[in-house]
Amino acid sequence: MKHIKKELDHFLDILKEIEEVTAQMPMVILESTGHYHSPFIQCLEEQGILYILQFLIRQRSPVYET
User: Fold this and answer.
1) In angstroms, rounded to a whole number, what is the distance separating the alpha carbons of residues 52 and 31?
2) Residue-level pLDDT at 11
3) Is the pTM for the entire model greater than 0.85?
4) Nearest 5 degrees, angle CA 18-CA 38-CA 10?
C-alpha cells in the first residue's frame, strides 16, 4: 500500500465496512518501519482509530556473530 491519500482513504473505507458488519471499529496493529509508518499513523489518529505500533527488538544470533 502506498501512503497516498487515495489508498489511505480506501483503507479507511475497509475499516468502516468491518465496523458496519461487526458493530466494532477494528484495532490496527502496525510494525514500526522507521519513518514510513508516520503518514499512516497520522491518518488513523485524525479518524480516531485505535492502533498499536509494534517496535521490533532484534537480537544478534550467535550463529552470525564473527
Assistant:
1) 8
2) 92
3) no
4) 30
